[in-house]
């Protein structure tokens, strides 16, 4: 499994609620949500292996509500977001979300009991942004650090970036997408994502 898939796999486990005052510690929520997601995958492993397209629905139901796809899209497109029409923005958000869900689904199918260690959370009680840090260990290999960036959006915690081994998901996509936009334009990028997302299986 490559690093990009790991980013999406682990980031998708993060689920937050409404406010510091009315919810658990974010670290506890990350761990509990992770356990819930993995339990479902393990329970349905044979079914998902036979019908891998079903995992996209599982991801959409559990993962998507906890991501701020609009903010991620804005960060990924950078200056091109400001130049895009409303229709282009909406189309890009839709296809970028589908891309993340598909990539996560593939990684989730490949999960094989990797251990996740949750590090202490350091944040002010009234913070509107937090970083949740974890480390992933597999078969005696060196731990892979995973940092999740979340912010409060509409009174909910939302993931807007993930950093693995000091590589930002947002920055990684921004570099690749900006190259294509410079060469062929935003509409071309959207069309390419739509074609890729149109495949019937993850």
Query: How is the main sheet built?
Result: 5 strands, antiparallel
Q: Provide the CATH topology.
A: Nuclear Transport Factor 2, Chain: A
Number of domains: 1
Query: What is the total tally of β strands?
Result: 5
- Low-pLDDT runs: 14-20
Distance from first to last alpha carbon? 14 Å
How is the largest sheet built, in terms of strand order?
1-2-3-4-5
Name the shape in a single word.
Answer: globular
Task: List the keywords.
Nuclear Transport Factor 2, Chain: A; about 15% strand; alpha+beta; single chain; 5 strands; 9 helices; about 200 residues; five-stranded antiparallel beta sheet
Task: Itemize the secondary structure elements and their pairings.
Blueprint: H1 3-11, H2 26-43, H3 45-50, H4 54-62, H5 69-77, H6 79-83, H7 86-109, E1 115-118, E2 129-137, E3 144-153, E4 156-164, E5 167-168, H8 169-184, H9 186-197
Antiparallel strand pairs: 1-2, 2-3, 3-4, 4-5
Task: Describe what you observe in this structure.
- This protein has a single domain (3-195), classed as Tgt2/MlaC (Nuclear Transport Factor 2, Chain: A, Roll).
- It has 202 residues and is an alpha+beta fold.
- It is globular.
- The protein has helices at residues 3-11, 26-43, 45-50, 54-62, 69-77, 79-83, 86-109, 169-184, 186-197; strands at residues 115-118, 129-137, 144-153, 156-164, 167-168.
- The protein has a 5-stranded antiparallel sheet with strand order 1-2-3-4-5.
